[in-house]
Design a protein that fits this description.
With 147 residues, this protein is of the alpha+beta class. The protein folds into two domains: 2-92; 110-146. 54% of the residues lie in helices and 13% in strands. The chain has a three-stranded mixed beta sheet with strand order 1-2-3. Strand 1 and strand 2 (51-56) form a beta hairpin. The radius of gyration is 27 Å and the shape is elongated.
């Protein structure tokens, strides 16, 4: 931060001006998209007035935005700010706030365990039968640990 503050005023001013410009472009862009995108999409670059780079909050939102891209591109070309637009690039900006992966453990009911064990009794393949019985046996263990 100290180095940034020691930079000439003009350099910091250009950085702030560019940030305001990207915010302005983001607001213009969002006027062409459904409201559901308002907190999830922002403009991160507009290279030579031809290549628009957008940042989205997740890969699911990137997929939704890709669905709108052809219509969005046509609409933006009618806007004087974006009339030379040739390409839209969508990038996912992952958040670093949740770096731990949650462990997905399934909890089966005792009824499910009984159904699995009953099914295993009627199976001739010994390997599959043992696997199903082992699975049915784990149900009681998991349900008592997880709850």
């Amino acid at each position: 931060m100290k180095k940034v503050l020691q930079q000439p005023y003009a350099a910091i001013d250009r950085l702030l001006q560019h940030s305001r410009y990207l915010d302005y472009l983001s607001r213009r862009l969002l006027s062409y998209l459904p409201d559901e995108f308002s907190d999830r999409v922002s403009v991160t670059g507009f290279k030579q007035q031809q290549q628009l780079t957008l940042s989205v909050s997740s890969s699911a939102w990137a997929s939704k935005l890709r669905f709108y891209t052809p219509t969005l591109k046509r609409s933006l070309r009618n806007d004087p700010q974006f009339n030379q637009l040739q390409k839209i690039i969508i990038k996912v900006a992952f958040s670093n706030t949740n770096t731990k992966q949650t462990k997905n453990t399934l909890i089966y009911s005792q009824n499910a365990a009984n159904v699995i064990a009953s099914s295993a009794d009627h199976i001739e393949d010994e390997g599959l039968k043992e696997t199903l019985l082992r699975l049915a046996g784990h149900v009681g263990e998991k349900s008592s640990v997880e709850r």
